[in-house]
Amino acid sequence: MVISNLTTIVDRQLGADEANVVLVDGVDTPQPTVETLAVAPRLSGDGDALTRAAASDSRLRAFLQCDVALPTSLPGVPSIQLQAMRMAQSRPGAPQSVCAALQR
């Protein structure tokens, strides 16, 4: 039996000791990008782990694009679908709720 400490995300092979955060952007595009980060393994404070990690690492905050607002309309996308997207973004741990928590 062969045991591997490797995984493949999109087309990038990652080792278990390479990083502890994997960021994937453009999953709805033909060429998603994969980026890895090593953040402090022990996060101080209480609450959502993603919010605490983002508070401690500027690279993670930059990836979340807190300064980019969700669109109010998109061509070809029904408004009910956009409303569902906005609702999903406000759930705990979603990028927009993390951004809101960081601004407090």
Question: Summary?
Answer:
The protein has 104 residues and is an alpha+beta fold. The protein has 2 domains: 1-38, no CATH class; 42-104, no CATH class. It has 4 helices and 4 strands; from the N terminus they run ββββαααα.
Characterization of this structure:
By secondary structure, the chain is an alpha+beta fold. It has two domains: 1-38, no CATH class; 42-104, no CATH class. Helix content is 34%, strand content 17%. The chain has helices spanning 49-56, 58-64, 79-89, 95-103, and strands at residues 6-9, 12-15, 21-25, 33-37. The strands form two sheets. A two-stranded antiparallel sheet has the order 1-2. A two-stranded antiparallel ribbon has the order 3-4. Strand 3 (21-25) and strand 4 form a beta hairpin. Helix 1 packs across helix 2 (58-64) and helix 1 crosses helix 4. The longest helix is centred in the C-terminal third of the chain and has 11 residues, at 79-89. It is globular, with a radius of gyration of 16 Å. The mean pLDDT is 79.
- Report the mean per-residue pLDDT as an integer: 79
Within the largest sheet, what's the order of strands?
Answer: 1-2
Instruction: Count all strands and give the number.
Output: 4
Overall, the morphology is globular
Order of helices and strands: EEEEHHHH
Unreliable residue runs: none
Alpha carbon gyration radius: 16 Å
Largest sheet report:
2 strands, antiparallel
Number of alpha- plus pi-helical segments: 4
For the terminal residues, how far apart are their CA atoms? 51 Å
β-sheet strand percentage: 15-25%
> Given the helix and strand composition, which structural class is it?
alpha+beta
Number of domains: 2
**Helix coverage percent of residues?**
25-40%
